[in-house]
Amino acid sequence: MITHLRNRALKQLGISFALLMATIFLLVMGVLGVPKLLIAVAGIPAGTFALVFYVKGNIALCEAKGHSGSAVAAIIIVAAICTGALFFAMPLIIYFGLDDRVKRKKRSHRSDGGSERFKPIAELPPRREE
Length: 130
Prior knowledge:
- The structure is a single chain.
- This protein is mainly α.
- It has one domain.
- 63% of the residues lie in helices and 0% in strands.
- It is built from 5 helices and no strands.
- It has helices at residues 3-31, 36-64, 70-81, 85-88, 90-97.
- The termini are far apart.
Protein backbone atom coordinates (compact mmCIF):
# COMPACT_ATOMS: atom_id res chain seq x y z
CA MET A 1 0.00 0.00 0.00
CA ILE A 2 1.30 3.42 -0.91
CA THR A 3 1.60 5.36 2.33
CA HIS A 4 1.00 8.94 1.20
CA LEU A 5 -2.11 7.92 -0.75
CA ARG A 6 -3.39 5.96 2.25
CA ASN A 7 -2.88 8.98 4.49
CA ARG A 8 -4.66 11.23 1.99
CA ALA A 9 -7.55 8.74 1.81
CA LEU A 10 -7.89 8.58 5.58
CA LYS A 11 -7.83 12.38 5.78
CA GLN A 12 -10.53 12.74 3.14
CA LEU A 13 -12.69 10.04 4.72
CA GLY A 14 -12.32 11.78 8.10
CA ILE A 15 -13.38 15.12 6.63
CA SER A 16 -16.34 13.38 5.00
CA PHE A 17 -17.38 11.84 8.31
CA ALA A 18 -17.09 15.21 10.10
CA LEU A 19 -19.21 16.94 7.44
CA LEU A 20 -21.79 14.15 7.64
CA MET A 21 -21.99 14.60 11.40
CA ALA A 22 -22.40 18.37 10.89
CA THR A 23 -25.25 17.74 8.45
CA ILE A 24 -26.97 15.40 10.90
CA PHE A 25 -26.49 17.95 13.67
CA LEU A 26 -28.13 20.62 11.50
CA LEU A 27 -31.09 18.33 10.84
CA VAL A 28 -31.48 17.74 14.58
CA MET A 29 -31.32 21.49 15.16
CA GLY A 30 -34.16 21.89 12.64
CA VAL A 31 -36.37 19.74 14.82
CA LEU A 32 -35.50 21.94 17.78
CA GLY A 33 -36.69 25.13 16.06
CA VAL A 34 -33.81 26.56 14.04
CA PRO A 35 -35.09 28.30 10.86
CA LYS A 36 -35.26 26.00 7.87
CA LEU A 37 -33.51 28.52 5.64
CA LEU A 38 -30.40 28.38 7.85
CA ILE A 39 -30.47 24.60 7.77
CA ALA A 40 -30.78 24.60 3.97
CA VAL A 41 -27.99 27.16 3.49
CA ALA A 42 -25.59 25.25 5.75
CA GLY A 43 -26.79 21.66 5.39
CA ILE A 44 -26.95 21.23 1.62
CA PRO A 45 -23.33 22.30 0.96
CA ALA A 46 -22.10 20.30 3.96
CA GLY A 47 -23.87 17.17 2.71
CA THR A 48 -22.64 17.71 -0.84
CA PHE A 49 -19.03 18.17 0.24
CA ALA A 50 -19.35 15.13 2.53
CA LEU A 51 -20.33 13.04 -0.49
CA VAL A 52 -17.53 14.48 -2.64
CA PHE A 53 -14.85 13.88 0.02
CA TYR A 54 -16.23 10.37 0.60
CA VAL A 55 -15.89 9.38 -3.06
CA LYS A 56 -12.46 11.07 -3.39
CA GLY A 57 -11.28 9.29 -0.23
CA ASN A 58 -12.40 5.93 -1.62
CA ILE A 59 -10.64 6.63 -4.92
CA ALA A 60 -7.41 7.54 -3.08
CA LEU A 61 -7.70 4.37 -0.97
CA CYS A 62 -8.17 2.32 -4.12
CA GLU A 63 -5.12 3.94 -5.73
CA ALA A 64 -3.12 3.28 -2.56
CA LYS A 65 -3.81 -0.43 -3.05
CA GLY A 66 -2.51 -0.19 -6.63
CA HIS A 67 -5.84 -0.23 -8.49
CA SER A 68 -7.31 2.44 -10.72
CA GLY A 69 -10.19 4.63 -9.62
CA SER A 70 -12.56 2.76 -11.92
CA ALA A 71 -12.84 0.01 -9.29
CA VAL A 72 -14.58 2.53 -7.05
CA ALA A 73 -16.96 3.38 -9.89
CA ALA A 74 -17.80 -0.30 -10.25
CA ILE A 75 -18.48 -0.59 -6.52
CA ILE A 76 -20.72 2.52 -6.65
CA ILE A 77 -22.71 1.08 -9.56
CA VAL A 78 -23.16 -2.27 -7.82
CA ALA A 79 -24.12 -0.50 -4.60
CA ALA A 80 -26.71 1.61 -6.43
CA ILE A 81 -28.24 -1.45 -8.08
CA CYS A 82 -28.15 -3.86 -5.15
CA THR A 83 -28.41 -2.06 -1.86
CA GLY A 84 -27.53 1.28 -0.37
CA ALA A 85 -25.68 -0.34 2.52
CA LEU A 86 -22.79 -1.25 0.21
CA PHE A 87 -22.23 2.44 -0.46
CA PHE A 88 -21.39 3.05 3.19
CA ALA A 89 -19.22 -0.06 3.37
CA MET A 90 -17.05 0.99 0.42
CA PRO A 91 -13.89 1.76 2.43
CA LEU A 92 -14.10 -1.66 4.08
CA ILE A 93 -14.69 -3.39 0.74
CA ILE A 94 -11.71 -1.58 -0.79
CA TYR A 95 -9.40 -2.05 2.18
CA PHE A 96 -10.12 -5.73 2.86
CA GLY A 97 -11.55 -6.94 -0.47
CA LEU A 98 -9.06 -5.68 -3.04
CA ASP A 99 -5.65 -7.26 -3.29
CA ASP A 100 -2.54 -5.14 -2.84
CA ARG A 101 -0.85 -4.69 -6.22
CA VAL A 102 1.96 -2.47 -5.00
CA LYS A 103 5.38 -4.09 -5.27
CA ARG A 104 7.34 -4.03 -2.08
CA LYS A 105 11.01 -3.12 -2.04
CA LYS A 106 13.31 -6.06 -1.49
CA ARG A 107 15.56 -5.63 1.48
CA SER A 108 19.04 -7.00 1.83
CA HIS A 109 19.42 -9.97 4.15
CA ARG A 110 23.14 -9.46 4.67
CA SER A 111 24.37 -9.56 8.22
CA ASP A 112 27.22 -7.08 7.66
CA GLY A 113 24.84 -4.29 6.67
CA GLY A 114 26.25 -3.91 3.18
CA SER A 115 29.65 -2.59 4.24
CA GLU A 116 31.10 -2.89 0.74
CA ARG A 117 28.73 -0.21 -0.49
CA PHE A 118 29.73 2.37 2.09
CA LYS A 119 33.47 2.68 2.30
CA PRO A 120 34.96 4.49 5.28
CA ILE A 121 36.18 8.03 4.80
CA ALA A 122 39.93 8.23 4.13
CA GLU A 123 41.98 9.45 7.07
CA LEU A 124 43.82 12.73 6.65
CA PRO A 125 47.51 12.99 7.52
CA PRO A 126 48.26 14.61 10.88
CA ARG A 127 48.52 18.41 10.94
CA ARG A 128 51.86 20.11 11.38
CA GLU A 129 52.37 21.99 14.59
CA GLU A 130 53.45 25.55 13.88
